[in-house]
Hints:
The chain is α/β, with parallel strands linked by helices. It folds into 2 domains: 3-211 and 255-273, Vaccinia Virus protein VP39 (Rossmann fold, 3-Layer(aba) Sandwich), CATH 3.40.50; 215-248. Helices cover 34% and strands 22% of the residues. The strands form 2 sheets. The chain has a 7-stranded mixed β-sheet, sandwiched between helices. The chain has a 3-stranded mixed β-sheet with strand order 1-8-7, with no helix packed on it. Helix 5 (84-93) links the parallel strand 3 (75-81) and strand 4. It is globular.
Amino acid sequence: MTVQRTAENWKPEEVRRLWGWISSREDMIGSYFSRSEGRSLQNLLLLTGQLRGRVLDFGCGPGFLLKRLCNFKGVEAEGLDFSPKNVEETKARLKDKPRFKGATVVDGLPSPLPESQFDLVTCIEVIEHLTDEQFQQTLAEILRLLKPGGQVLFTTPNDEKLLKNQNYCPFCDSQFHRWQHLRSFNSQQLKESLEQAGFEILFCQGIDLKRFKPPKQQKVLDMGVRYVAGKVGRGIRDASASLFDLLTGAKFPLNRRFRGRVTPGAHLIAFVRRPERGKS
């Protein structure tokens, strides 16, 4: 009888083995969301004005997003992951980055990190992998680690139909999600979960994250009319949006530099904040 691999029969060691195997293969390493969408995530954080201070990438994987975040002045970034292999690779990948402040491997929550330390936490494509208990523990831990007023960026697939990504193993007669996803969220479900955990919601919506990807730089000899026209047009739009935000005092999530790129899509993005002391 075929076993449907659900939260009850995915054990922590099996999860570690799966992602250890994926991260060890050059042909699979591009599957990490923080690598394939790293430029979009970086630009999203810049356009929202949240990339500053002490930053923790919760579930950092092999450190692809951290490598990008460490390039910005005013940022000190570190990682946390449940895989010793991922933490080892993160440290090796970022060893020459002066703004990288280390990575911590944990086997359970709460972590050994002290509370109220971080201005920003990123939690990229993590929560869909968690059981109910792990999900609640993760939200509580992130809230604990944030400074009052600190913010979090969560990303997860938008209202994913889990059965569409099922694989079957004929050796063990098991059916399972190819990326070990255990849960799916729409924007209302995620809002309610985050509010119940004690966060203040700033923005929660399914968007097309690729709209935030900056264009790749072309060599001068490869620049065509379309590329130059597109670059000039984007520059004018960004300058106009920046001027509007400056004149009106518009801040995230109402600033035009951010809102001008928001269109419905497959990536569920949530920016939340830990309430200031004395606020609920």
